Request: fold
Amino acid sequence: MKSGFKFGVAKLKQLFLNDIEVTAAAADLNRGALKKATGALAAVDTGGGLFSWVNPEGAAIFIEHLAVKVTTKATGACSMDCGVTSTNATTLSDTMIDGKDINAAAGTFTSDESAGTNGKQGRRCESGKWVTGSVVAGGASAGIVGTYEIYYRVL
Reply:
């Protein structure tokens, strides 16, 4: 340890650095930590029908990565869009994954390799706003089984 540097814990739940108590609010400790949200896919053909997740943090987040793991593909023609929306939980958005065929094969589809025309890997999502997975018009998600994973950091 460097000379003149003193680190210690005087009491339970108190941290001192050079005899000065180190304090931080929960929001400060939460900011920047990588978090993961997961859930099951549903075979529902409306906007947000595959999945809908609301940002539960008290602040905006940056979604670094979205993955949709399809373990059983849809039985009929079906493509999905996934993305961030500020409208509501039943709004189709293609800002992260755009037009991915989920009838051709099962697999893991991510916001970097399955971005399509409109998708991007990372997106900002305000507190209380949504990430949705939706069936593209004319598709049918019957038979689909899988999960979604959202990796994000609080801003």
Summary: Residues 26-30 form the longest helix (5 residues). The mean pLDDT is 89. The first strand starts at residue 7 and ends at 8. The helical segments are 26-30.
